[in-house]
Design goal:
Strand content: 15-25%
Low-confidence stretches: none
Order of helices and strands: HEEHEEHHEHHEEHHEHEHEE
Strand order of the largest sheet: 3-4-2-1-11
Largest sheet: 5 strands, mixed
Number of strands: 11
Shape: globular
Mean pLDDT: 95
Oligomer: single chain
Helix content: 25-40%
CATH architecture of the largest domain: 3-Layer(aba) Sandwich
Radius of gyration: 19 Å
Number of domains: 2
CATH topology of the largest domain: NADH Oxidase
């Protein structure tokens, strides 16, 4: 089974607590992020891991309010909590700061029973899969798990019927086309596109979208020059209509940074449990901010749409996207 990490070291059982927290960051960096931008810098003490924005990082057109960055930090937090439990360590999110965005996890004072190492495998093998899925229904146990994560602060809806999936696909296709009319948006997306043979440790190579190697060299230029939204709309519609079994929406009662972080925790929990069953996910973010009423109608929800994703059995996979090393994104204090 492919995994995102290479050269993993042994857990430093006899090391300091800071050494142990530093070790766990190799699992934190496996979290998903918009365009694989990896918008994190970790500050590690003996008892805390704080997730900060890297110096100079911004996605002003794609994430002007830092909502999806906060969502990413929630995914990071879930990875850390699960990896920690595999080694008997317990983390809680102790603080969320909105401006500048910052999330702190604190190490518990007591050791906890060791969790199953299946979480470590799930963290390192999970990947976003943007290809078509089969229409095989999800296991009922997984669907039940997804809906069980709903709380007073978040609601979750799972759509399975084809007519509604088609309407969701139309919404995704339309909002993506509208978004890509803006040259500034296209330029920002193109900045994070990579060739299939890239040596860079961030961004999205063409192979994650099924783009051939030769085309991947010119794709960033094409993206900046032309609105490809209308071109990919028919493919998007077909994927939702004929190559997806389930579509999930997570809504928040509010749009605070805490709410977006928790949405990331919930999504990552679903993605990891799905991964254990050979099930994959793919987030579609374009409609979330601009089609609130339509999405709430389609999913029979209210509140703030935060995460819309397909989930199902893959028909094909791609190599993992690269990650910057833990050393490159961490300060120890």
């Amino acid at each position: 089974m492919r995994h995102i990490l290479s050269g993993r070291q042994e857990f430093p059982s006899d090391g300091s607590s800071q050494d142990q927290l530093f070790f766990l960051l190799q699992y934190a960096i496996c979290a998903p992020s918009v365009l694989n931008a990896q918008p994190w810098h970790f500050v590690v003490s003996d008892t805390t891991i704080t997730i900060n924005l890297p110096e100079g990082f911004a996605q002003p057109n794609l994430d002007p309010d830092w909502n999806y960055t906060a969502f990413t930090y929630g995914c990071v937090a879930e990875n850390l909590k699960r990896a920690g439990r595999a080694y008997g360590l317990d983390f809680t999110i102790s603080d969320v700061q909105a401006s500048p965005l910052q999330v702190t996890l604190r190490l518990g004072e007591q050791r906890v029973p060791l969790a199953h190492e299946g979480d470590l495998v799930a963290i390192t093998t999970r990947q976003s899969n943007r290809f078509p899925y089969t229409t095989e229904p999800l296991p009922e146990g997984l669907r039940s798990y997804i809906t069980s994560l709903a709380s007073d602060e978040h609601t979750i809806s799972v759509v399975t019927d084809k007519d509604t999936r088609v309407r969701i696909g139309e919404c995704v296709a339309q909002t993506t086309s509208e978004l890509f009319k803006d040259p500034a948006v296209r330029a920002e997306v193109a900045e994070w596109k990579r060739t299939n043979s890239t040596k860079k440790k961030d961004g999205m190579p063409g192979f994650v979208m099924g783009i051939p190697k030769v085309v991947s060299y010119v794709f960033p230029w094409l993206l900046k020059k032309f609105n490809i939204g209308p071109k990919v709309a028919p493919k998007t519609l077909k994927v939702f209509a004929d190559h997806t079994s389930d579509v999930v929406m997570i809504n928040g009662v509010s749009s605070t940074m805490e709410s977006w972080v928790q949405a990331g925790v919930m999504y990552q929990s679903i993605a990891l449990e799905a991964n254990k069953l050979g099930v994959v996910t793919s987030i579609h973010s374009a409609p979330v901010a601009v089609a609130v009423d339509e999405l709430n109608t389609l999913f029979a929800l209210s509140g703030v749409p935060q995460v819309l994703f397909r989930i199902g059995y893959p028909t094909q996979t791609a190599p993992h996207t690269a990650r910057k090393s833990v050393d490159d994104v961490t300060t120890r204090i």
